[in-house]
Design a protein that fits this description.
alpha/beta, 327 residues
Length: 327
């Protein structure tokens, strides 16, 4: 039977609209069950702590609990791979860091595209990175440290527990003409323990991890790898202030979903995070563990996507130039 042209067009348009209507209906009823938030690192680390603080408060606006799933391994790339394979329905999200969503793209051959296979939701927080030294080092400041390292080429050692810190160590050597041995660690506590004991000389790490030892006088700080000094330790100068502007690095945390997540669901998740980050109790808890909330105007999918792409443009060529590989 041949359908009249007008009726055929109406039926065709209705069929085309079904996927849109279905996505709208899903978004309106979202979330209808608990949400899984992947943390691409083992429990107990900074990524895990931030995720649990934020996820707990997101439960109120979403009306569903958020279950933390720690999927560690390969510097976060295994957990991010789990997100890449998940359905884009809003029930699997990931709180990752600059390392897992930017640097791994140059260190690893990945089965997914970090810049195109995910839906950014929002920037969450950032934390300063510092260069710390054992207390018995004779250098009193960064200038003296560089001079000491040049006078003792290849004799010093520096502990690193992430690819980001390894990148900073290699970049520091390149910029200063120094040479020292990089000692890999699986986790920050082991590197800190060896630094305090004097078994290694230096460590690049988060200020949060080192602050207790610094305040107790068991470590000394040389510089902050950030554009400005940290409110947690305002006496520590930045690398830029010491004449090394190329060593400016932002250690950020952002929330992502699989590519193809409907915009309505992205908006709901973004709203839940924004509400959580506006809560004074959440901000206080994040501050206590050494992390600063991004300004409200940067708590958007667009700001996260822009920072991710800018960091890739900045650091991928440097990683390749230095010939760095994942271990």
């Amino acid at each position: 039977m041949t359908l009249p042209r007008r009726r055929f067009l109406r039926l065709a348009m209705s069929a085309a609209a079904l996927p849109v209507l279905a996505r709208t209906a899903i978004a309106q009823g979202y979330p209808a069950r608990p949400i899984t938030m992947i943390v691409p690192f083992p429990a107990g680390g900074a990524n895990d702590v931030i995720a649990r603080i934020v996820a707990e408060r997101m439960r109120e606006p979403l009306g569903q609990r958020i279950v933390i799933e720690n999927v560690g391994g390969a510097d976060g790339s295994i957990g991010v791979g789990r997100l890449a394979r998940a359905r884009p329905d809003g029930y699997t999200i990931c709180l990752g860091i600059d390392g897992s969503f930017v640097l791994n793209g140059a260190f690893y051959s990945l089965p997914y595209d970090l810049l195109n296979d995910f839906a950014p939701i929002t920037l969450v927080a950032s934390g300063p990175v510092v260069l710390m030294g054992r207390t018995t080092l004779p250098a009193k400041d960064l200038g003296e440290l560089i001079a000491w390292l040049k006078a003792h080429p290849g004799q010093a050692s520096a502990g690193m527990n992430t690819l980001g810190f390894r990148l900073l160590a290699a970049r520091f050597q390149q910029q200063t003409g120094t040479q020292f041995t990089i000692v890999p660690y699986r986790a920050a506590p082991a590197a800190i323990e060896d630094l305090v004991a004097g078994r290694i000389d230096l460590v690049f790490g988060t200020l949060t991890s080192h602050l207790p030892q610094l305040r107790a006088g068991r470590e000394k700080a040389y510089a902050v790898v950030d554009e400005q000094r940290s409110a947690l330790a305002p006496d520590i100068a930045t690398f830029a202030e010491a004449g090394l502007p190329a060593l400016t690095y932002t250690n950020w945390y952002g929330l992502f979903a699989p590519k193809g997540l409907p915009k309505d669901i992205v908006a709901k998740l973004n709203m839940a995070v924004v509400e959580a980050l506006a809560d004074p109790a959440v901000r206080s808890r994040l501050s206590e563990v050494g992390y600063e909330v991004f300004p409200r105007e940067r708590q958007t999918p667009e700001a996260l996507a822009a920072l991710q792409k800018a960091d890739a443009a900045k650091w991928w060529p440097v990683i390749r130039e230095l010939g760095l590989k994942a271990e």
